[in-house]
Amino acid sequence: MNPVLPTWRSAGRTQRGQARPRNEDALLDCPQRGCWAVADGMGGHRHGDVASQWVVASLASLSARGSLDQRVSAVRQSLQGVDQRLADARRRSGATGSSMMGSTVVALLLENGRAACVWAGDSRCYLWRERSLYQLSRDHSLLQRLMDERRLTATQARAHPEAKALTRAIGAHSPLRLEVLELSTRPGDVFLLCSDGLYQALSPVELGLALSAGGPQQVVERLFASALHTPARDDLTAVVVQP
């Protein structure tokens, strides 16, 4: 099968927040291969920026050849390989607990009217379709688990002292479990991949207003302009894709 043609329009941006001395987010904006990703190094852990860069570099090395199913399988294998590298690095250094290296990931693959979202952690994939916002990915976090199990109300779950703890991530939990969602694309669709720093800074209404702002670069500029009017303590990363 021929490589994916560069028919997609996309733009991405990442910026360090106020909470850390370095940006622990990373992004992949690769329209010529029909592949995009956002990775968020786990805050408070050693070398979170290295972990996120490893994730993105591994995905960037994948071939655009093959069917969408084959490419999803290749993404799985790639991320499993990074997970093993991070585990090996942790063992070699003797690091445990809060010293682990880890990263979230959310990746998007597009091919001839089909899309696949692959993720682990709480970086998100949104779809803006016919002036409605849909969250395609589901957070792998204690907060989401508590709400799913209805053990606490949404307000109580958000107030939980460990609400932001991740239940899945690259390099942090063994064995790694990735989640995949596939769907058909429609004319006018807009996809947003982003780290939690961005979506926590903006309401769903603000996200929708930004995603209707025009082309990918205009959308990214609108997202960051809105987010930077908030305290924005966490790193901010967004990739916008229009099939």
Low-confidence stretches: none
Q: The CATH topology, please?
A: Phosphatase 2c, domain 1
Over the alpha carbons, how many angstroms does the gyration radius reach? Answer: 17 Å
Total of helices: 7
Largest sheet: 5 strands, antiparallel
Query: What structural class do the secondary elements suggest?
Result: alpha+beta
- CATH architectural designation: 4-Layer Sandwich
| Oligomer type | single chain
Number of domains: 1
Q: Write out the strand line-up for the largest beta sheet, numbering strands in chain order.
A: 1-10-9-6-7
Indicate the mean pLDDT.
88
> Which superfamily, in CATH terms, is the homologous superfamily?
PPM-type phosphatase domain
Range of helix content: 25-40%
Strand fraction: 25-35%
The overall strand count is 10
Amino- and carboxy-terminal Cα gap: 20 Å
Compressed to H and E, one letter per element, the order equals EEEHHEEEEHHEEHHHE
CATH class: Alpha Beta
Shape: globular
In short:
31% of the residues lie in helices and 26% in strands.
Secondary-structure blueprint of this entry?
Blueprint: E1 9-15, E2 25-30, E3 35-41, H1 48-60, H2 68-93, E4 103-111, E5 114-120, E6 124-129, E7 132-135, H3 142-148, H4 154-158, E8 179-184, E9 190-194, H5 196-199, H6 204-211, H7 216-227, E10 236-242
Antiparallel strand pairs: 1-10, 2-3, 3-4, 4-5, 5-8, 6-7, 6-9, 9-10
Helix pairs in contact: 1-2, 6-7
